[in-house]
Amino acid sequence: MRSVRTSAICAVVVSLAWGVSAHAQSTAPALANIFADHAVLQRDRPIAIWGSAAPGASVTVRLNDRSVTAQTGSDGKWRATLPAMKAGGPYVLVVSGGNATAAQRLSDILIGDVFLCGGQSNMEFQVKHATGLDVIPSANDASLRFTTIPDSSKTAPAGDLAKRVDWRSVTPETIGDASAVCYFMARSLRRTEKVPMGFIASEWGGTRIESWISAPALATQPGFTDGLNAIATFDRDPAAATAADGARREKAWEALDPAARTERAFRAADYDDRRWGTVPGQYEQLPAADRDRLDGVVWLRTTVDLTPAQVAAAQTLRLGPIGRYDETYLNGRFVGGGSVDWAWRNYGVPAGLLRAGRNVIAIRAVGAKKDGRFTDMSIRTIGLSDGGAVPLSGPWRYRIGTALKDGSVGPAPWDVPNSLTTLYNGMIAPIAPYGLKLAAWYQGESNTGQPAAYRGLMSTLMADWRRAFASPELPFFVVQLTGYGAPATAPRESGWAALRQSQAQAVAADAHAGLAVTIDVGDRFDIHPAQKTVIGERLARLARVVAYGQPGLRSGPEAAEAVRQGGDIVVRFRNVNGGLQRYGGAGAIGFEQCAGATCSYVDGRVQGDSVVLPGAGRPEMTAVRYAWADAPFVNLFDGADLPAAPFELPVR
After folding, report:
1. What is the b/e burial string over 569-600, where b = at least 16 CB atoms within 10 angstroms of the residue's CB?
2. Predicted local distance difference test score (pLDDT) of residue 554
3. Helix count (H) and strand count (E) of the chain?
4. What pLDDT sits at residue 20?
5. Quick one: which of 105, 116, 119, 193 has its CA closest to 147?
């Protein structure tokens, strides 16, 4: 899925480049980079503060009138815990060495409630793109603050963020860049809770849930052992891991494509490609017959002449989006491959592979037809250590290979957006255990192809983040997937519906979780619906009950059971506020009666907190489904205007 924020579609593996540079330790005490001017710290619980200093140094941390001393370990890391404080501020946070000659001082620190918001692009979706003309001009709250964690993929847990975050107060000038869902949730809670609040957005568009779970936690779920082992190898030896991934891919290609063995020659530096076609400057200039065949395998080759200085400074092969999949070779050696059509390819250049003079780049692409990127040479370069770049302007030559419906041989486990654990390592581990009041999660679109595994992964992620942030009962709120895609004219299976069910089951099994149902605010034409205000308000409603202990229901209408009653089936709902309502019609639409795997639509009749499905009680009917489609049309709500949650239930 294409990311909303530009940074999410740029270099996806820069942090996984060849070689690991040493991280210089300052001798003066320094706070971790999640702490900055204008930050909000969590009230009413001990406050964890950490950072770095010279090994064995004594470090003093002061916040307002509270003070605590910590000792730096041999690794140069220290951690201190200040006593719990009530909401208030602004205060000054100071960390100093034992002789107090060197200190770091942060100002305008508030004590209040802190929210962590994670997920993919619908959590990343910014306020400036959301529905509502008055949203930005009316945003002005000095006691509501936010920060966004920069995109970072790491093969091992990072000890700190790469640079200090920017905590900002909500103003018309700042709020446009914030996560819309997270902001609207926090804005709503500010109206009722009357304490300072801050939200941390840690999200990356198009990513899968597996990317956001720590390696030990992910290892408890089936199917990830090999990938996690490969990640660990990459962390120790990127060259060896990449070579192994190239060998895996080649073996898979030989099973997938009958021409793969012959086409091995295409990657070689000395292969003669002069009989291949030349890629024109405009997509429309390609022969029509070739344009029609670009969905399958297409090979691309070019050469670039480098000076000795450019060879010494070369760091990254930057190719931009190429197609759905690719394998890229530099002077005959595999250097990387991507797995989605929108992600920019940025591959580390192994030391010693480039040479002064002629160098050859060869790419096997699949699905290169997308958006005419096949002909865009302007974005293809070799990035240099001084920030410069050598253009790969061609000429590029191409040869069309086997027509394949799906050329995927599986991504490398460090390949964002399909990576395992790397976003936890880069974007969660460095900010834990920052004190939190609650967490919100909006993700799942990228996992709709494997809904059965999602329930276990969602439960694992909630437990994993609670462990990381030292909060075993941290309230955790999940935004259920809304509707997107072609509407159904007849009942059929739906990965989106099945994933919604997995989300609901994971939340139902967790005493400290809540589900925000959003099936009514989707856009079947846009995977990024702009109506984020409603979603934020529904998250805030859950938070008031679960996190703040206010009276109320922790969800909207949920089906409790489906029972036969005479010749009918009666679906009984719980958590209904003010009775069930049907909008725009005499009956409730979206219900299905199922005899095994064969389902058919049946209109419902609303009776109080139940829906009667007339004539559906026949013996062969084994299950009932509701809103079971990628983009269902629904009209069943309760008196609080909350939509009934989609479901599949056996008939009792």
Report:
1. bbbebebbbeebbbeeeebbbbbbbbeeeebe
2. 79
3. 12, 34
4. 34
5. 116
pTM for this predicted structure: 0.92
Other beta carbons less than 10 A from residue 387's beta carbon: 7
Give dist(CA 96, CA 626) in Å, integer.
Answer: 60
Q: How many residues belong to the chain?
A: 652
- Measure the CA–CA gap between 342 and 523, rounded to whole angstroms: 21
Strands 197-203 and 103-119: parallel
Amino acid, single-letter form, for residue 78: W
The terminus-to-terminus CA distance of the chain in angstroms comes to 39
- Return the closest-CA partner of residue 34 out of 196, 203, 163: 163
**Burial label, 23 (beta-carbon count in 10 A; 0-12, 13-18, 19+):** exposed
Per-residue pLDDT for 273 more than 90? yes
pLDDT tens for each residue of 438-451: 999 999 999 999 99
Say which residue the tokens 């720590």 belong to. 214
197-203 and 314-320 beta bridge pairing: unpaired
- Contact by Cβ (8 Å): 519, 627: yes
CA-to-CA separations, 114 to 44, 181, 348, 439, 631, in angstroms, rounded: 11, 15, 37, 9, 34
336-340-346-350 Cα dihedral, nearest 10 degrees = -10
Contact 158, 429 (CB under 8 A): yes
Contacts of 562 (CB under 8 A, 6+ apart): 569, 570, 571, 572, 623, 624, 649, 650, 651, 652
What is the spatial distance between Cα 479 and Cα 516, in angstroms, rounded to a whole number?
Answer: 5
